[in-house]
């Protein structure tokens, strides 16, 4: 309750504001109203009309009269006596009798809202997909009657999913877990109905030994104990890989009218199919759900295992309020439900390492001999190495890299990773080397083609007739080279060799797979396609660019990008080689060369703990116009040990919301608040309370509150 508001009165029998017959039993509905203001983040009470008694069940979508408007909401629970002392309005309509909000997802949504200083309504918008009435009707007719969710985990000898293998329990021998210390014990615990929690450092592997196969085998082991599984991956291509691995492991895809198997939950499938899959999980038809970020909320019955693959990927971070991360959502879910959790990737985040250091999860990783046998040979070409080549070493593709690519092209495809998309994503004055900036908003300019007109990367304005603000010259030179220009250069360096581009902005889009034949595949980070049989070599260009950005996570992101690409290359025993080209920071470079993401994460976490940086502490960022940010900070009741840093101006375009005395848009400022980990809950609570007061008073300006932000600078 906000300070200054009167205390709640004693409960009393409900009274209706209108002559509407109300339900005889449990006539009071507590509801969550789907409105954004923070001060409305509480349960409101309405009466259940007698006519809606049978369909107004907890978890259903409803329509209500709130003030002078009709609003949507969810029915949270029904009780016999109201806490509100006045008259209650009746629920206007039950949109659907489908109870889409389960008690378990409701508890999770409340926990996530509390952790991130958000509102329940905001979280439920992330958790529950929009209704599709036609799909709901057809699914109700096609779905067989299923028993309710069991109240306790099934025994270890419970039947497996339809089509799944039926041995007594999976064993690590001959599986993707055979080379990981503790892999066999992890599967055994899953098949016995236990709830192990692990942080897994995956190894590169071919068919039957890759990361997707390991996840599929963990899902099968969980199914042998009669429980369901939830797998969340960064994008639809990863969903395809997990789906294929599940089919290979004997788990069938769910089909309408059937029970058991797995289903996909991705936005790429369209609203109808996504809602159809959601209902299949909700009704217990599908026992395994695989999908992208929103799938973390899937209402899997008798959930036994949650999996977050590649938690380093930015796609796992929700861009909408309250900005939760999939890893944290699934960790909270495992904690609340007491189910198993698996967080994995080729790299290891400091956040995942923090879970290991705190004893929340156990590490699953291979020994050094196994790592050397399963990974390609990695070599870093620094400026010292390139200086030995003379003039050839100054080229963007040095002589040694060119020789390695030519040799590899004789036996298979070669992957070329570049940090930036486009043609020339950053340009400068050819005379004085000053960064070329937009005359309207001062954002950096870029070139989309060799004969193109410079364009602002912030506001999109074309800089026709551009002149340098420093020296007046009109010529431009490149300071960053993108994937399109790289492909153009490689086409000239390797005539007759096919060159393919994979990226969100490329003509062909993001490629899923390439054949095992000679070709140069140019890809931006995260868009690397899988090669049948693995790549013969990989060239990681512009390494210095990957570690030059000023950010807390720069080194960690570089290791993740490089290892993700290198994991697609054949092992050293089959001739696989990876060349890192450029003077990158020493620590990430050594982590790649030694293939040691665990050691890098351990050292990074130790340094952050010493400097009181996340994830060793909880961090909150308040960003917006200065007066609004200061008002939010002034109301905070900070826990012991908390510290406010700033506010200071941030390098972002000016946003509407407030103006200075001269009528100019204000540039935003940001304040950072850090607190010890045990005080994280109190920090979130006081930020939520301040946001509620701001909402209630309708204060001007803008203020965005974000807990555990990825970027602090």
UniProtKB/TrEMBL annotation:
Amino acids binding Zn(2+) 2: 438, 441, 456, 459
Stretch forming the signal peptide: none
Cofactor binding: number and manner: Binds 2 zinc ions per subunit.
Compositionally biased spans, kind Low complexity: 140-161
GO biological processes: DNA recombination; DNA replication initiation; DNA replication, synthesis of primer; double-strand break repair
GO cellular component: primosome complex
Gene Ontology molecular function terms on file: 3'-5' DNA helicase activity; ATP binding; DNA binding; zinc ion binding
Binding locations of Zn(2+) 1: 429, 432, 468, 471
TM regions (residue ranges): none
Coiled coil: none
Metal-binding listed as a keyword: yes
Region called Disordered, residue ranges: 138-180
Residue stretches making up the Primosomal protein N' 3' DNA-binding domain: 30-129
Pfam families (alphabetical): PriA_3primeBD
Alphabetized UniProt keyword annotations: ATP-binding, DNA replication, DNA-binding, Metal-binding, Nucleotide-binding, Primosome, Zinc
Known cofactor(s): Zn(2+)
InterPro entries: P-loop_NTPase (IPR027417), PriA (IPR005259), PriA_3primeBD (IPR041222), PriA_3primeBD_sf (IPR042115)
PANTHER family: PRIMOSOMAL PROTEIN N
Quaternary structure and partners: Component of the replication restart primosome.
Function text: Initiates the restart of stalled replication forks, which reloads the replicative helicase on sites other than the origin of replication. Recognizes and binds to abandoned replication forks and remodels them to uncover a helicase loading site. Promotes assembly of the primosome at these replication forks.
Protein family (similarity comment): Belongs to the helicase family. PriA subfamily.
Protein name: Probable replication restart protein PriA
Native source species: Pengzhenrongella sicca
Lineage: Bacteria, Bacillati, Actinomycetota, Actinomycetes, Micrococcales
